[in-house]
Predict the 3D structure of the following.
Amino acid sequence: MRRLLALCLPLLLLTGCLEVDQHPDWVHGMYAGKKDDRPMHRLFHDDKLSWWGAIGNRNMKQNEYNRANP
């Protein structure tokens, strides 16, 4: 039992050593990474009206009262 504990103890102590730093780089107090574009900028070329129209159409198709024609 002690031998098993003696073999597992170094492995348990080393498990936290493989953690990589996941924080972004900061240069002069500013974020130095790539700027994330909003979906309306990337997909609709900065046309917010067509973006909100597409969102409205998608929401109308998810409404059961509008999909089922009585």
